[in-house]
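Human: We require from you a protein record containing the residue sequence and its fold in token form, and nothing else.

Assistant:
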Amino acid sequence: MIFKTKNLILRPWRKSDAKCLYHFAKNPNVGPIAGWPPHESIEDSLNIIKTVFSKKETYAVVKDDIPIGCVGFLFHPGTNHWWGEGACELGYWIGEEHWGNGYAAEASEVLISHAFNDLNVSQIYATYKVGNAQSMRVLEKLGFKYYSDMVNENYNHEYFREVAMKLEKKD
């Protein structure tokens, strides 16, 4: 599927996006705060496109024909946590050069509507690392409410605190 918003296009990732993905994903300010290590090569980014970003309901966030980030849902058993039946987990990131423009919320908003209207989802969860005020603001802007404090483990097997937020489908 392809979604269009006021400023963005959400579309499936393409192998040809690997160089652009690497440009944004090698930045140590982007990946670790989202829970993944910075990419080390274009081949690393291509592998992510072929595996992680090829999952259903995972989209490139495209601005002016350039993929500047990613937004998508994780469904059990591919989620970071078990959220219950009828639930999914929202994840997103935007390249640092594009922070502060509202693109994470704009891209997430269209997917949230898709989940509630087309995917039989009744609850959407999302987490952010304690201290990631930008992600907290995105989720609050989207209407998410506090769910719980949690502890998770990162790619270096280090534990960190995160906050889980929840959005429920309105009947």
User: Anything to note?
Assistant: Residues 71 and 92 are 4 Å apart (CA to CA).
